[in-house]
Design goal:
- This protein is mostly helical and about 160 residues long.
- It contains two helices and no strands.
- Helix 1 packs across helix 2.
- The chain starts with a helix and ends with a helix.
- It holds the Pfam family ATP-synt_B.
Length: about 160
């Protein structure tokens, strides 16, 4: 065989291989590559969209956190004001109760003082009657001299 004929046959076989590849293999391969490129582009677009949605969600979360912090601060301030008002009211009530207790104690002391004076007057009156009995050397009738003893009590 001749080398030229072999080269010519190989060139024909190569041309048939190129034609067959361009006709049957190349279009599905290009279609698969285009589909893959489209999927990659869709994935990148979805990633960009998700990234922007994430940024929006983070922004909304930050706004909500700021709003919640403001409300929490306001609630804490209100709670502190209420606590101070409750403490002030309790202190006022305690002062009122203390004043009432002191007033009751003063009244009780005054009542005991009055009772002690009355008891002392009774004792002084009894001693005066005994002293008068001894001076007169006779028995004094208490029912007859009740008026005299009453005046004596008031004078003491």
């Amino acid at each position: 065989m001749n080398i030229n004929a072999t080269l010519f046959l190989q060139a024909i076989v190569f041309a048939i291989l190129v034609w067959f590849t361009m006709r049957f293999i190349w279009p599905p391969m290009m279609k698969a590559l285009d589909e893959r490129a489209a999927k990659i582009a869709e994935g990148l677009a979805a990633a960009d969209k998700a990234k922007s949605e994430l940024a929006n969600a983070n922004k909304k979360v930050d706004e909500q956190l700021a709003l919640t912090r403001g409300e929490t601060t306001k609630l804490l301030a209100d709670a502190e004001k209420r606590a101070a008002a409750i403490v002030a009211a309790a202190a006022g009530q305690a002062e009122e109760k203390a004043a009432k207790i002191v007033a009751d104690a003063h009244a009780e002391a005054e009542a005991q003082s009055v009772r002690a004076r009355e008891a002392l007057r009774e004792q002084v009156a009894a001693l005066a009657v005994k002293g008068a009995e001894q001076i007169l050397q006779r028995e004094v009738n208490a029912s007859v001299h009740a008026e005299l003893l009453g005046r004596l009590k008031t004078e003491l």
